Amino acid sequence: MNRIIGIISAAALVLGCQGSGEIFTEGELVNLYEEDSPGYGDVRVPEVNIADKVLFNVQNPTLQIFPAQNPNGTAALVVPGGGFCMLSYSGEGVEVAKELSARGITAFVLKYRLNPMIMEDGKPASNLAELVKVYSTTYLKDLAVAETLPEKKEDRISYQALHTPCSPLAFEDADNAIRYIRSHAKEYGIKNLGMVGFSAGAMITLNQVLYHDEETRPDFAGVIYGGWYEPLEAPEDAMPLFLSSPVNDVFAPEESWWVYKAWRSAGVPVEMHDFSKAEHGYGAEKDGTSKDSWIDLFCSFLKDYKLL
């Protein structure tokens, strides 16, 4: 988990100002709950927006909708990452949604509930420096790692992240988001609905892929630098799955390989692209390397299976 602290600390050095909130002015914004969302009791903290890039202390989830420029009937729920304690809302949410929208996909960015970052004095963290401090102390202590898990798997990223105190709330938000989109499918002109998630958002996506009912089953999924701990089997109603990750991802790249092997063993459409010149967290960022093509590859994969 020290690697996560390093990434958050780097972000704290780069992003030092409060955001204006302009990031939410594009597209329609829908609240997933009519009133304050459940799950926190009396622990209510103000949401923090850093430079319109990073959000934390999110307690009231929303969907931000980016209509397709030339709609083709396909939609995607975009789920940014951030270790269940913050959201890379711009780079892994809004900017990805714009890229998908330009390719004919109606995109819904999910702002999901996070673990509240509370300092030792009981006050909520209000900037990234305080977030780093909370993460490196009380937050890590709250991670629930089962004693029965084999020792060699105890430090695997996905297992720990998926057992943070509020990860079930994030799963519930994704489930409710799909229910909302499906209930408004005619309004948005949607025939196929999938998900694409990043890091923690990739784990939320995989949770939805593995555990769903008929109404909340995604038609396809994109899992970007995220994975799942073993043992893993594809569900009986597994859908086409696209994976992308850095070859040398700091967060257990073999976990995405296990997902690939599970889908391949089940004979379900799966495609994986690992990029040698890429680092965790690339989202929609362009830097001239081969990983810039991942969104086009993802869309080509969907076309191969008539999902786009």
Task: List the uncertain runs.
Answer: none
Q: Tell me the major beta sheet.
A: 8 strands, mixed
CATH topology annotation: Rossmann fold
Derived from helix and strand composition plus strand pairing, the structural class reads: alpha/beta
| Major sheet: arrangement of strands | 1-4-7-5-8-9-10-11
CATH superfamily: Alpha/Beta hydrolase fold, catalytic domain
Helix and strand sequence: HEEEEEEHEHHHHEHEEHEH
**Between the first and last Cα atoms, what is the distance in angstroms?**
38 Å
Count every beta strand, where a strand is a DSSP E run of 2 or more residues. Answer: 11
What is the helix fraction of residues, given as a range? 25-40%
> What coarse outline follows from CA principal-axis ratios?
globular
What's the topology here?
Blueprint lengths: L1 H13 L13 E4 L16 E3 L3 E3 L5 E5 L7 E6 L6 E2 L2 H13 L2 E7 L16 H14 L15 H5 L5 H17 L1 H4 L3 E7 L1 H11 L10 E4 L16 E6 L7 H13 L3 E6 L18 H11 L4
Parallel strand pairs: 5-7, 5-8, 8-9, 9-10, 10-11
Antiparallel strand pairs: 1-4, 2-3, 3-6, 4-7
